[in-house]
Write a structure and sequence with these properties.
There is one protein chain. Strand 1, helix 5 (about 95-105) and strand 2 (about 110-115) form a beta-alpha-beta unit. The longest helix has 29 residues, at about 35-65. This protein has 9 helices and 7 strands; from the N terminus they run ααααβαβαββαβααββ. It has a 7-stranded mixed beta sheet with strand order 3-2-1-4-5-7-6, sandwiched between helices. By secondary structure, the chain is of the alpha/beta class. It has 2 domains: about 5-65; about 70-240, Vaccinia Virus protein VP39 (Rossmann fold, 3-Layer(aba) Sandwich), CATH 3.40.50.
Length: about 240
């Protein structure tokens, strides 16, 4: 049986968007059967576009979350394998800490950023239910300066929607990293490949240029960067002047 856990989570947290797409598919099919001429062609176009993006986004999600090497975390050993103090910063829904800990054979400590005043999306509020992580407001990570060897932000940092808040978050990360420590950021990018499968949903992501800007603002250097699947990019960041 193919794994569908990742796809199930995508549907769980984004069900309103998929419900709206399903409505468009059904409504346009009904209209196509009842209309003629240009109106029927417009209904057919709406049907095809909605069906395409539902199918393409779910297939891409399956590729990323259920059928790629990302979630076995073995690739992470090359970038965080020597780290002793590791924290995993997420947005409330944690499907990575346990797997990363097993892969690295280290204790990984989960932290969840959440501020109801700024994290207003319904999916983020739903993700808070049942999280066992230490919660904190962005920019107020409750750890000592230079106390962490590796800070992981895995499909999480794009949920920080305000530019100034992202800058505070990454400045906080930079301050918390120990000498030679690494921040590892895994994200979809707002690029042509993600637009091709997620359509307008790709606007929820940020461009490579934006992530580089945020890193520079925090005085973090890009030690490595690479693609994991056509839809996911990895940044390995270090404090200015340091290298893993």
């Amino acid at each position: 049986m193919p794994r569908l856990h990742g796809v199930a989570n995508i549907l769980r947290f984004n069900w309103p968007q998929y419900a709206a797409a399903a409505f468009v598919i059904v409504a346009s099919a009904i209209l196509f059967a009842r209309l003629d001429g240009t109106e029927a062609m417009l209904a057919a176009a709406a049907f095809v576009i909605a069906l395409y993006f539902v199918a393409a986004s779910l297939l891409a999600s399956w590729t990323v979350y259920d059928h790629s090497p990302i979630y076995d975390w073995t690739w992470l050993r090359a970038h965080a394998g020597d780290a002793h103090t590791i924290i995993n910063v997420h947005a409330g829904f944690d499907e990575t800490t346990d797997g990363v800990g097993r892969a690295l054979q280290r204790n990984v400590h989960p932290f969840a950023f959440y501020d109801p005043a700024s994290n207003t999306e319904a999916s983020i509020a739903r993700a808070q239910n049942g999280t066992a992580a230490t919660r904190f407001r962005t920019g107020q990570l409750p750890l000592r300066t230079a106390s962490c060897d590796a800070i992981l932000l895995l499909f999480a940092a794009h949920e920080i929607r305000q530019p100034a808040e992202r800058e505070r978050c990454f400045a906080d990360v930079a301050a918390t990293l120990s000498a030679g420590g690494r921040a590892i950021v895994v994200e979809h990018l707002r690029d042509a490949r993600n637009f091709a499968v997620f359509g307008p949903g790709a606007l929820h992501f940020y461009s490579r240029r934006e992530w580089l800007r945020i890193a520079r603002s925090a005085r973090l250097d890009v030690a490595h960067e690479f693609d994991m699947t056509p839809f996911v990019h990895v940044f390995v960041l270090t404090a200015s002047g340091a290298r893993p």
